[in-house]
Structures are given as C-alpha cells and as structure tokens.
C-alpha cells in the first residue's frame, strides 16, 4: 500500500511538471519535463534499491515494509529536492548573472 501511494504521488508530480512546462512553453517542453522527471525517478530508485539491499534483510522489516518499500521511501528525498529545484522555483524572478 505504501508503494502504491508513492507511485501515485510521483504520477501526480509528473502531471504537474508536464502541465507547468506545457503552459509556460510548448507541448514538447511538457513531454521533455515528464521524461526527465521519470528518468530521475527510475535512476534514483535503482540507486536506493542497492543501498537498501545492503542494509535490510531479504524478508524486510515486516510484511508491509519490504526492500522495495524502503527504497521507494528513500527515493522521495532526492526526488523532492529535484522537483523543487526544477519545477517549483519561479524562474521569472531569477536574475541573470552580471559580468
């Protein structure tokens, strides 16, 4: 159930990223944002899966908290940082560097 909730949150975040970039730019930018967001999710899930595999026993901590659940919980942290930096920050207020 925890895995389903985390996947649902990522699907909603992907839709938000798509819609925001699509409205600010073109449809192509929306699809690119969606692809980048899910690519980062897949890469982070692979990396955290290896970390959890090294730390958690094969049977997990409980029937509801397995290795996959642990790796998905760890994915939330870097994904939140990535999402905040690339999709939630208002780019119109960013000043260009002065030389």
From the structure above, extract its key features:
75% helix, mainly alpha, 99 residues
Commentary on this structure:
- This protein is an all-alpha fold.
- The protein is elongated.
- The protein has one domain.
- 75% of the residues lie in helices and 0% in strands.
- The chain has helices at 2-24, 27-55, 67-88.
Number of domains: 1
Q: How much helix, percentage-wise, in residues?
A: over 70%
Number of strands: 0
Oligomer: single chain
Mean pLDDT: 84
Query: How much of the sequence is in beta strands?
Result: under 5%
Structural class: mainly alpha
pLDDT under 50 segments (min length 5)? Answer: none
Rg is: 17 Å
Number of helices: 3
Main sheet record: none
Order of helices and strands: HHH
How far is the N terminus from the C terminus?
Answer: 52 Å
Break the fold down into its secondary structure elements and pairings.
Blueprint: H1 2-24, H2 27-55, H3 67-88
Helix pairs in contact: 1-2, 1-3, 2-3
Outline of this structure?
Helix content is 75%, strand content 0%.
């Amino acid at each position: 159930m925890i895995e389903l909730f985390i996947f649902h949150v990522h699907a909603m975040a992907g839709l938000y990223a798509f819609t925001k970039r699509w409205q600010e730019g073109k449809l192509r930018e929306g699809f690119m944002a969606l692809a980048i967001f899910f690519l980062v999710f897949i890469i982070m899930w692979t990396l955290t899966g290896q970390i959890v595999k090294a730390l958690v026993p094969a049977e997990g901590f409980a029937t509801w908290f397995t290795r996959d659940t642990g790796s998905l919980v760890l994915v939330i942290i870097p994904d939140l940082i990535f999402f905040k930096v690339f999709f939630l920050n208002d780019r119109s207020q960013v000043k260009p560097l002065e030389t």
